[in-house]
Amino acid sequence: MGLSVEIANTDEQPFIYMLLQSYLRELAEFENITRNESGEYEYQYLKYYWTENTRWPYLFYFDGKIAGFALVRLENETFIMAEFTVFMEYRGYGFGLVFADELIQKHPGKWNIEYDINNAAANNFWNKLVKTIKVSNLKKEKAAGNREYLEFMAGKK
């Protein structure tokens, strides 16, 4: 079983946009996400993941097949998990924990992961992750609306 996390190249931007549409449709159950006139979910920051050196687009692979993606950014010396998903058919096997751990190891330092508390899957996943991987200075705080975030320090293994 081969799991890997790879940086997405510029040619994969349209593909990630397509994956992002499915992901945002799933999130729309919990968040108010705007659609454009064509019915697509808007994500104005996607292009910057290939043009700014403080943003990283990742694809997750299981045995050579794409199993999900993540968008990570650095803001005020804190890494932000902007978007993260494992496709439905790959959930429930622990792959997400492996992918998230590998991503965090690629960017040692301070992290902030925010999620909607009404999204039970996200709430459970992120709280399980910080109990599974090595982190320090863990704080769980309330954010605006129905959101909360986990803040922690992580280093390379």
Helix content: 25-40%
Our Rg estimate from Cα atoms comes to: 15 Å
Instruction: Characterize the quaternary organization of these chains.
Output: single chain
Mean pLDDT across residues: 93
Unreliable stretches covering 5 or more consecutive residues: none
Tell me the strand percentage band. Answer: 35-45%
Distance between the termini: 21 Å
CA-based shape = globular
Tell me the number of strands: 7
How many individual helices?
Answer: 3
Write out the strand line-up for the largest beta sheet, numbering strands in chain order.
1-2-3-4-5-7-6
The succession of helices and strands, N to C, reads EHEEEHEHEE
State the major sheet: 7 strands, mixed
Structural class: alpha+beta
Architecture overview:
There is one protein chain. The chain has 157 residues and is an alpha+beta fold. 25% of the residues lie in helices and 36% in strands. It is built from three helices and seven strands, in the order βαβββαβαββ. It has a seven-stranded mixed sheet with strand order 1-2-3-4-5-7-6, sandwiched between helices. Strand 3 and strand 4 form a beta hairpin. Helix 2 packs across helix 3. It starts with a strand and ends with a strand.
List the helices and strands and how they pair.
Blueprint (H helix, E strand, L loop, with lengths): L2 E5 L5 H15 L27 E8 L2 E11 L2 E9 L8 H12 L2 E8 L3 H13 L3 E7 L4 E8 L3
Parallel strand pairs: 4-5
Antiparallel strand pairs: 1-2, 2-3, 3-4, 5-7, 6-7
